[in-house]
Amino acid sequence: MINHSNVIRLSGFCLHEGNTYLVYEYADNGSLTDWLHFNNTYRILAWKQRVRIAYDVADALNYLHNYTNPSYIHKNLKTSNILLDANLRAKVANFGLARTLENDQDGGLQLTRHVVGTQGYLAPEYIENGVITPKLDVFAFGVVMLELLSGKEAAATAIDKSAGDDLLSVMIMRVLEGDNVREKLSAFLDPCLRDEYPLDLAFSMAQLAKSCVEHDLNTRPSMPQVFMMLSKILSSSLDWDPSDELNRSRSIDSGR
């Protein structure tokens, strides 16, 4: 049985005229997609709210991967499947593609010939070879973190651009490599934040997201590792004072 505060709760079901209806708890504030990509009708998410949402989703995935029996791979994580309650706490929803992991499966590895999902969130090993492991969710979560950081969609919709160059999972590699990382990261971050964020913590979160979307699944962190890192980032974010930002931001380009 799945029971977690950051997983949407099934309240009941009913049968009517041969159809089955599922009733879930109500999420007052809609989906994360609405907040990040349709800001004409929604308020702007502040830095601390964004980190809290990432923390909530990581908590849910860590629970699904490690604390249910059998364990689950969500397999369809994206911002439209992350709902927000009245307090803007995240609820992972839509388990239509979820897979269970039995205890005797080697490393949680499964294979499929039927690759389904949303462009921008799919891990390379799944697209290329149909490999399904918990690292599939880790990759998708990394993309969600990048959306929270940048306000951009997982994959650009412009038809005149190559898909690879327009994926957030590719863009972040260029942002964090080479020189002038602080300037490139500042340009990458959501302008709706209006510079009201701790740049050193944004850098830490971007690095974590980058590690989650590495091409090789074996180099990606596990969800317990991701959750632990986000716990630290959230704690520091809650203590963050905007007046400290000038001194803190200097550490990114020097010594890192």
TrEMBL record:
The keyword ATP-binding applies. InterPro entries: Kinase-like_dom_sf, Plant_RLK_LysM, Prot_kinase_dom. Keywords: ATP-binding, Cell membrane, Disulfide bond, Membrane, Nucleotide-binding, Signal, Transmembrane, Transmembrane helix. It is found in: Cell membrane. Residues 1-234 form the Protein kinase domain. GO terms for biological process: response to other organism. It is a single-pass membrane protein. It comes from the Eukaryota. Signal peptide: none annotated. The keyword Metal-binding does not apply. One of its GO terms (molecular function) is ATP binding. One of its GO terms (cellular component) is plasma membrane. This is Protein LYK5. It comes from Populus alba x Populus x berolinensis.
